[in-house]
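Course assignment 3, question 2. Fill in each field.
Student: A.L.
Task: Predict the tertiary structure for the chain below.
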Amino acid sequence: MARAPVSVDEDREKSKRVGALRELWPFLRPYRLLVGLAGLALIFTAAISLTLPLAVRRVVDNFNVENGALLDLYFTAALVIAGLLAVGTGLRYMLVTRLGERVVADIRKAVFDRVVGMSPAFFENIMTGEVLSRITTDTTLILSVIGSSISIALRNILIFLGGLVLMLLTSAKLTGLVLLIVPGVVVPILVLGRKLRTLSRENQDWIAVSSGNASEALQSVQTVQAFTNESAVRRDFSDVTEHSFDAARRRISTRALMTIIVIFLVFSGVVGVLWIGANDVRGGAMSAGALVQFVIYAVMVAGAVGALSEIWGELQRAAGATERLVELLNAEDSVVDPVTAQALPAEVRGAITFDTVSFRYPTRPDVSALDQVALEIKPGESVAFVGPSGAGKTTIIQMIQRFYDPQQGRILLDGVDLKDMARSDFRAHMALVPQDPVIFATSAMENIRFGRPDATDAEVEAAAKAAAAHEFIVKLPEGYRSDVGERGVMLSGGQKQRIAIARAILRDAPVLLLDEATSALDAASERAVQAAVDELSKTRTTLIVAHRLATVKKADRIVVMDEGRVVAQGTHDELVAAGGLYAQLAKLQFTEGGEAA
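Answer field:
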């Protein structure tokens, strides 16, 4: 079923004021010189535009003069003004476009920098596709506004105000008649503009939902195809896309209606004023040149009003986009670093303490993921966590990395509470092999080097050999330089797992976290990798999460978990002898000859 966009919910902020564009000022402030130069170019072009009708008036009023040189002078002046206008317009375009590109690049970096550091709890409430939509689609709208719309709007405001003043100086009578049209123009802008703001935000929200829907489906395309759900996925995407189109259609129709009303009222008024002005020329009350000058100013003012009515819609869309981006920039994370971070000891030993830790996931507040967990893990100790699915084993791994904070209790590394340290500081001393390894769309070499970016090629290759990955990597078309595709689509599940293990080996951290690290390996590869893990475990604290008990028999200690609680701990032989949950699991998995099939 297609999901409604988040902001359509009643609890979502409904403000769509153009004033939201003020939030862009922090990004514009570093480029005040560029803003100033663009402003000068804008004022210059507006002033030049307003002087052009004066030259036209001189030409028209002097058609019949006998002095041809004077007429030539007026034509030359008009040509010079046109040239200056062209140069000024080009300069203005260059400055504002460059400013727009620079600011949008900074906004994209700022949003990405903010989001990439957010804890997993943040992504439980927003789809990745929607975040990407905000970084791309919404910033494109802002680029259009900064690089074009605001500049054009300010230019038209100057032309509108300057044109009105010059119209008044040309003919107060005709100007007064023109001003009678203004209320008729302002009313539809105010009435329809409010509706347009709502539709603009709704349109952007549905685009974000569409992006999230497509991202989710494409990332899971094999599962979609395996369960023959292509039609359902296509239908869902079609639904949200049609919702987006429907919102866009209503926005376009409203904006078109507003444009029609405004332009018709403006130009109808201008025609009426021209009729009165033509009669004044026939009666000798004003010259033909003055009427032409007034007409040009009137057209410029009318054009400015029409342009402003269109640009208003763009500004409203950009305001909505700005609100959505600011939401990401101002989003509060449930996990934050302390203002004054405490440093770890110079040499990290890897002692880990769970001090009566209780935790519930934000999306499942009624279920205890960890319940009064108390554990002391000694430096260099190898501890395995076993138990049924949902027992809290992976949660232990996540808590040690402080992806979440416990609601009760403390987690300490070498006697220092994780909350008192910068996350990047203590995570630098941890290496993780997740159950579902993340493989990036780059070479095998760079995927392994992700564990330690300053590692040499030789060190990467040594880590790959230790993880039993070297043999299959050298068989790839370009060896270690082979691109493994998005999310490692060119690799098998076991190969991806070995790449992830090699990455952790290369990191050479004092704390090693293995979350079902060998679950996707065949028997031969598992033995090779297990040997490497056993060797690594001798010199570092190792936490192992596993369902297959054969992989944890050699651990110094096995912690048995059930429903978020520690129900037993000891060696394999001690736990089997004690009976209980572990003995039941062992009985299911082992036979006299080894692990059951």
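Instructor remarks: The CA atoms of residues 171 and 294 lie 7 Å apart. The radius of gyration is 35 Å.
Grade: pending
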